[in-house]
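Discussion board: Methods & Data

I've been asked by a reviewer to show the raw model output for two of the constructs in my manuscript, not just the figures. I'm not sure how much to include, so I'm pasting the format here to get opinions. Each protein appears as its amino acid sequence followed by a line of discrete structure tokens. Is this the kind of thing reviewers expect to see in a supplement, or should I convert it first? Here is construct A:
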Amino acid sequence: MAEGHSNQGANHAEASDHVVDERTAVELTYQPQSADILVGLRVRERIKRTGLLLRSVFLLLWVGQWLVSAVVRGGVDVVSTVLFLLVVLLVWGYPRLQAAQTQRLVGWQGDYRANVSPAGITCRTDHVTLIQKWSVFQGYRETADHFVLLSRDPNMLCLDVLPKRGVHEAGDLERLRAILDQYTPRV
């Protein structure tokens, strides 16, 4: 029965997946900043909670070690105090260091032009084009100035940060939110 059936319909359906309705697509143009990346890392940390928990436990262990050391010696040891303050600084500053390092990796590429459409997110720079379908993302979270999209992998290693300052027209923000709501859940 399938002898006379052609695959033309299947190819046509596959080709139509790549057709983007320009009326619903939203274009963002922005230069990534370290603060944008920091927002994305904080959102991921709040959702994942593992990194926050590990850093908190690590900090509590160092506080305990410092207090025990002070009680056993009968006073505060300078070396122990300096190490304790260094650990506090590192635990507090780690996300900022990570954001600064990521900024160095992506900042040199110049302006980012992100097209958010029913087909997914296409991000272009002068050097790279990245196309991501909606199936890559487990969801998104909206902050005051950003939309943060989190990847589906268990560690959420990949995240996309779309700064709201990148939209061109007033209605683009609502259309962007509608597209995100339609194709990926809020988390």
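Construct B, same format:
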Amino acid sequence: MTYIVKINPAISRYEVPDLREVLGWDRRDNDYPTLFERCNFWAGVRDEKEKLIAFGYISGMGLQHGYMEDILVHPDYQCQGIGVALVRELLRESERFGLGIITLTHDQKYLNFYRNCGFTHCSGGVWVRK
């Protein structure tokens, strides 16, 4: 089956938390729907039964720089090219939106995935509230 990445699709308040949970991530229920009001745009992929199987978004000030977050693909649909399609569509939308720089942080095990999506590896830093 061919899966279609859609920009800013309607997503109910529990669909992303449910997807996060199946991946073993915090649900972060309180982030939704506020995230949709504050991020620049998001993308989603649904299966043939209309279940959300992939999600990601770009946040930032919307000037030149954006930050890609929460690239999620349901475990049953991983390694089928859906994640790459999702990221590439988010990058295309970033260009249409006028963003020239997109950054992200990721676990080292995903380095090749993001390189395949067009990212260049670089060093950086992260501050986390204690």
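Answer (T.O., handling editor elsewhere):
This is acceptable in a supplement if you add a one-line summary per construct. For B, something like: The longest strand covers residues 65-73.
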